[in-house]
Amino acid sequence: MPNYGDPDYWEKRYEEQQGRTFDWLESYESLKPMIKEIIDSSGKVLILGCGNAELGEDMYKDGFRDIENIDISEVVIGQMQARCESMPEMHWKVMDVRDLKYPSNFFDIAIDKSTIDALLCGDNSYINVARMTKEVQRVLKVGGVYMAISYGVPDNRLDHFEWKHLHWTVSYITLNEGTENPHYVYLCRKKEGADEICEANWKEVEENLNEEDEDDLKPDYDDDEDEDRNDEDVEESEKTNE
Ligand SMILES: C[S@@+](CC[C@H](N)C(=O)[O-])C[C@H]1O[C@@H](n2cnc3c(N)ncnc32)[C@H](O)[C@@H]1O
């Protein structure tokens, strides 16, 4: 399996995919009803690890305007900026999801479509995901939602939304249930007091995750089932998109 956790992997992939788009796991069409239950078209939207997916532009065409798209890959941000130059109110920025350059309490929704999956395939995956969730919770308004669309089953994902620095209500919806490629939409709604709880507990979470051997933390995760599913998923969605 490619190293989806390595930024260099993405730079190369996007250079090769120049002129193409590709939506991992799900398109806007299938997510639209859920997104519209959370925000109306005036909502402030952050797309985490946007890649060359059409999600942002499809939302724009559907009336959303206040959309920030970020990705660690300079190549893909350049490509998407050029592709969407007729959509001036939508912004594209090179940014790391673990270090967001936005004010606190700013967004109504943060959409992560398989970026958590990519981080979990890399080195230091647990602490990287914890840093991302810390930042995402910070930039969300109270009542705002982190929406993570993932191939990862709840047993392999829910723990990441329940570390002590996080204070949000977590639920999930299963898409394509009963098929070979189910996907999960995790919804984390920021609660009152989250910023204070994060401030009080982050150091402890960070120390624990830095100290722990990741293999001890994730007895099941390295079982090939999850990783194989990723490859199957990629192949499946590449077929669907081409
Ligand atoms: C599996 S792709 C998903 C792309 C897109 N969200 C979609 O649905 O098609 C993961 C994306 O996360 C980006 N990424 C990986 N690590 C990142 C980081 N630390 N900060 C920002 N983006 C990152 C990659 O460049 C890639 O575009």
Folded structure, characterized:
This protein has 242 residues and is of the alpha/beta class. It has a single domain, classed as Vaccinia Virus protein VP39 (Rossmann fold), CATH 3.40.50.150. It is built from ten helices and seven strands. It has helices at 7-16, 28-38, 55-61, 74-83, 115-120, 125-139, 154-157, 194-211, 214-217, 224-241; strands at 45-48, 67-71, 91-94, 107-113, 140-150, 168-175, 183-190. A seven-stranded mixed β-sheet has the order 3-2-1-4-5-7-6. Strand 1 (45-48), helix 3 and strand 2 form a beta-alpha-beta unit. The protein is globular. The two termini are 21 Å apart. Bound molecules: S-adenosylmethionine (SAM).
Q: Number of domains in the coordinates? A: 1
Radius of gyration: 17 Å
Would you list the SSEs in sequence order as H and E? HHEHEHEEHHEHEEHHH
Tell me the span between the first and last alpha carbons.
21 Å
Helix content, binned percent: 40-55%
Tally of DSSP helical segments: 10
Summarize the main sheet. Answer: 7 strands, mixed
Fourth-tier CATH superfamily name: Vaccinia Virus protein VP39
Keywords: Methyltransferase, Transferase
GO molecular function: methyltransferase activity
Protein name: Methyltransferase type 11 domain-containing protein
GO biological process, one term: methylation
Furnish the topology, listing elements before pairings.
Elements: H1 7-16, H2 28-38, E1 45-48, H3 55-61, E2 67-71, H4 74-83, E3 91-94, E4 107-113, H5 115-120, H6 125-139, E5 140-150, H7 154-157, E6 168-175, E7 183-190, H8 194-211, H9 214-217, H10 224-241
Parallel strand pairs: 1-2, 1-4, 2-3, 4-5
Antiparallel strand pairs: 5-7, 6-7
The chain binds S-adenosylmethionine.
